[in-house]
């Protein structure tokens, strides 16, 4: 398939090539496996609120991307021969190319129980408005995702939206902050800025390589800016299939900042749980 060459400012989610590249580099940059943590959390919460076909246990994975966390739950279920009976799973993202891939690679016990929904973390009420079962038992905003809410007031808007869709009393939201997104007063923020051109082999498209170049980064207040050029290249004839000027900004966090912000919203902070590479902040609501 021939794709027109494009030269544009972009994120990492706006084309099939970018989604493929993201899925290759994201696990190596995060070096995490949080699926086991979420699987145990799911089992514990489901035991507290028995579910039925008419009142299923609802999982919402916000910023699901290509379903990394949900497919991790699927792998854990397969290992113990479990299924998702009486469970409804929602993978929510505002990048359709991500959702398209997530659906394509769902082949295990999750299939038939998951809906991949194009929606915003800032309007979860709209996501749930047409659902038969409008309350969420386990809401996941996994490693680093909340850092994408970089505009003023967005984290508070998200937490208020969580309070609208979370099941009162028993529902819990797990919002994670990656250690690499914490502000350190005594040392500089690290930037991934390799010199020259880096090539990465595609996993989805035969004969395609991704060429990264011109990395640069900056920190202004609590916002980290990352920019680089990324080309999708046919390695056989060196045709440039797609060219993107990647530009992203990510919020950086003080260690207690999310807890302080939550006090202004409709959720209640329950606890923080330290992981190997992240901190899970747990919230519920009584409203």
Automatic annotation (TrEMBL):
Methyltransferase type domain boundaries: 60-169
Species per Swiss-Prot/TrEMBL record: Penicillium flavigenum
Pfam families: Methyltransf_12
Database matches in SUPFAM superfamilies: S-adenosyl-L-methionine-dependent methyltransferases
Protein name per its UniProtKB record: Methyltransferase type 12 domain-containing protein
Superkingdom field: Eukaryota
InterPro entries cross-referenced by the UniProt entry: Methyltransf_12 (IPR013217), SAM-dependent_MTases_sf (IPR029063)
């Amino acid at each position: 398939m021939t794709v027109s060459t494009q030269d544009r400012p972009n994120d990492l989610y706006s084309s099939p090539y970018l989604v493929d590249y993201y899925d290759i580099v994201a696990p190596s940059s995060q070096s995490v496996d949080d699926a086991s943590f979420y699987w145990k959390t799911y089992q514990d919460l489901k035991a507290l609120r028995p579910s039925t076909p008419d009142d299923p246990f609802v999982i919402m994975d916000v910023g699901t991307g290509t379903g990394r966390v949900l497919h991790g739950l699927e792998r854990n279920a397969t290992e113990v021969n479990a299924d998702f009976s009486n469970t409804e799973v929602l993978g929510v993202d505002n990048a359709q190319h991500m959702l398209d891939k997530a659906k394509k690679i769902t082949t295990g016990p999750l299939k038939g129980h998951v809906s991949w929904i194009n929606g915003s973390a800032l309007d979860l009420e709209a996501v749930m408005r047409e659902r038969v079962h409008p309350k969420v038992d386990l809401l996941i905003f996994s490693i680093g995702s909340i850092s994408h809410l970089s505009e003023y007031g967005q984290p508070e808007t998200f937490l208020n939206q969580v309070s609208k869709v979370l099941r009162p009393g028993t529902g819990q939201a797990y919002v994670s902050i990656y250690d690499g997104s914490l502000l350190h007063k005594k040392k500089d923020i690290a930037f991934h800025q390799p010199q020259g051109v880096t090539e990465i082999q595609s996993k989805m498209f035969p004969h395609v390589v991704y060429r990264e170049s011109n990395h640069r980064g900056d920190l202004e207040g609590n916002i980290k800016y990352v920019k680089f050029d990324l080309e999708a290249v046919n390695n056989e004839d060196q045709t440039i299939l797609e060219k993107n000027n990647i530009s992203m900004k990510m919020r950086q966090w003080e260690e207690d900042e999310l807890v302080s912000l939550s006090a202004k919203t409709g959720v209640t902070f329950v606890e923080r749980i330290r992981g190997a590479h992240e901190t899970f902040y747990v919230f519920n609501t009584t409203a």
